[in-house]
């Protein structure tokens, strides 16, 4: 008789972040590079008006919690066409809806055109019985956060272990057998800043926590360079959009996309990934000042955020928001332009302040 082999592993996801600020510098004499803005089609947010379909063992009332399992037909019927569709390394596409100011939501759509997850930040989302901006204590009254969260998939079983920092910043709640809610908190304000809803397969693909399991895990992504470029382009755009929504939440002006700065940011992300280091200083000794100088980019002040091994753009953004130095860059009132560069799972944000002309 065949015997079932049971394997027990504990995996850890190591998340890194770094922040670097260039103090006020002498303004280069070259003419300023033309400002480039990315414009995403503005749509009216309609999530709050959606009727919740029947969902077994799902006690949450808000419509955001009931999209998982529905098809894209239901999504376009309610929300219209997305602003864009971004590739991901997990076998689904992100359908993006945003006005680039007050709200941002991305739906994970698998190959069967079924929604397997949702991430939302900003205003206008129905997440009853909680609300964006609620305190940790109020949210925890309705979502049962735990140090251990289980998921069963056929003969395979998984237990996610959350450490103290996980519980503080991004606790996980099991809503039903195949529905999970990840609540992202701003630890500086003690408020719910964004939220993610996902099924078990998506949670396993991301593996944002230590996981103990019997069975198997999804394979690591393996794509051609061209496919990775498409995925990385999507991540860069997501970080740009989410950054401006977060700045709007905190009363800051929106940043403009600067393509030349994005090239610098991408070069640093790729260099870190390929040379296997994590630092604001390149192995050749160059810092942000030197990297910007290669393209003769004019600026008054500049700053840099870096991150590595986060599963996607929203996760990296939340990591930066909850780190004091990164947060200062995200919310800096002087910065006017942003360039984002992503290579595989290395992320770089380069901020600059430009003179108004």
From TrEMBL:
Q: Which Gene3D superfamilies match?
A: CAP
SCP domain mapped to chain residues: 241-346
Q: Which Pfam families match?
A: CAP, CAP_assoc_N
InterPro entries linked: CAP_assoc, CAP_dom, CAP_sf
Q: Which domain of life is it from?
A: Bacteria
Domain CAP-associated, which positions? Answer: 71-209
The name this protein carries in UniProt is CAP domain-containing protein
Q: Which organism is it from?
A: Virgibacillus sediminis
């Amino acid at each position: 008789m065949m015997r079932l082999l049971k394997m027990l592993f504990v995996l850890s996801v190591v998340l890194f972040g770094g922040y670097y600020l260039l103090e006020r510098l002498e303004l280069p004499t070259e003419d300023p590079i033309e400002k480039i803005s990315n414009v995403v089609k503005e749509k009216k947010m309609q999530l709050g008006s959606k009727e919740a379909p029947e969902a077994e063992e799902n006690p949450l009332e808000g419509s955001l919690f009931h999209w998982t399992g529905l098809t894209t037909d239901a999504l376009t019927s309610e929300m219209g066409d997305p602003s864009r569709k971004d590739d991901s390394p997990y076998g689904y596409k992100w359908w993006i809806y945003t006005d680039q100011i007050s709200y941002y939501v991305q739906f994970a759509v698998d190959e069967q055109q079924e929604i397997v997850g949702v991430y939302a930040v900003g205003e206008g989302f129905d997440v009853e019985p909680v609300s964006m901006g609620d305190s940790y204590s109020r949210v925890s009254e309705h979502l049962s956060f735990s140090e251990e969260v289980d998921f069963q998939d056929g003969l395979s079983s998984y237990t996610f272990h959350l450490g103290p920092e996980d519980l503080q910043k991004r606790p996980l709640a099991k809503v039903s057998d195949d529905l999970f809610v990840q609540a992202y908190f701003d630890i500086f304000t003690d408020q719910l800043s964004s939220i993610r809803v996902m099924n078990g397969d998506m949670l396993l693909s991301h593996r944002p926590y230590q996981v103990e399991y019997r069975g198997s895990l999804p394979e690591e992504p393996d794509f051609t360079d061209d496919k990775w470029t498409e995925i990385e382009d999507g991540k860069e755009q997501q970080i740009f959009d989410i950054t401006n929504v977060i700045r709007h939440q905190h009363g800051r002006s929106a940043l403009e996309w600067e393509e030349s700065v994005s090239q610098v940011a991408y070069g640093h992300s790729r260099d870190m990934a390929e040379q296997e280091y994590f630092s604001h200083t390149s192995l050749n000794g160059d810092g942000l000042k030197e990297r910007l100088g290669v393209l003769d980019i004019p600026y008054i002040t500049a700053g840099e955020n870096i991150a590595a091994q986060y599963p996607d753009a929203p996760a990296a953004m939340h990591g930066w928001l909850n780190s004091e130095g990164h947060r200062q860059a995200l919310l800096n009132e002087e910065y006017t332009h942003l360039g984002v560069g992503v290579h595989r799972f290395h992320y770089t944000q380069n901020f600059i302040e430009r003179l108004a002309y």
